[in-house]
Every structure is written in structure tokens, then in C-alpha cells.
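Work Package 3 (structural annotation) set out to generate three-dimensional models for the target panel prioritized at the project kickoff. During this period the team completed the workflow that converts sequence records into C-alpha cells, so that structures can be stored uniformly alongside our sequence database. As a representative example, we reproduce one entry of 120 residues exactly as it appears in the project archive.
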Amino acid sequence: MNPIGQTLSLPAIYRSVYNKDLNWVENDAGAFTEPDAILLKEIESEYGAPAEMVMKLIDVELAVTGLSRRTGILSKIETVLKQDWGTLEDINQRNTAPEMKNVYQDKLTDLKQRYEDLSS
């Protein structure tokens, strides 16, 4: 904290210590911008994949990016896909349409099979 009780960012601390700035990353990977949100809403309307779900899946991917072992990524993806996405009305409508019930489960099964094929 600085003398007036405010928390300083890392760039501000660096600047105060060294009296110079570095080229700090303005937007860290994982933070969605307004254009990202617009694009995800377009994807949602075109393909029916809820934007929030896609954001969560991207977050899962970013969380394991760069790791040498991506242990548990499929279970994390499965957790995201098993959640109810959309409004209550959308969820109720999906639950009453039998052909739509297993869309995400089918995709997950396909992803698991592809992953196992690649691991073999």
C-alpha cells in the first residue's frame, strides 16, 4: 500500500523504485475484451453454444496452457459442459427436447475418444 492506503499495481511499484517504465502487457490472456464478447455472442447466435460456456472453456484451456502435463483437463472440460447454460426458459426447453439432452455429452464423449487416440 502507498502512504494514502491505496494498493499499487506492479507497474506503479516498479516505476516508483526504478524511475522508468517497462512495456507492460495491457491485457493479460484470459481477460475478455468487448470485441471478444461481441464475437462470442455472434457464435452463440449462429451455433447455439452459450457465450458464457465458451468463455469458461477458454479459461480452462488457458489455465493449463504451458503446462507439460495437462492432467485433469478433460474432467475440467466435463465439469463445464455438465453445467446448465442459458436462461431458465432455455434450460427447461432443452430438458423437454430429448434430442437436445445429450448434445454436450455426445461432444464430450467424442473429445475423450480423440484425446485417448492421441495419447495412444
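Residues 10-119 form one domain.
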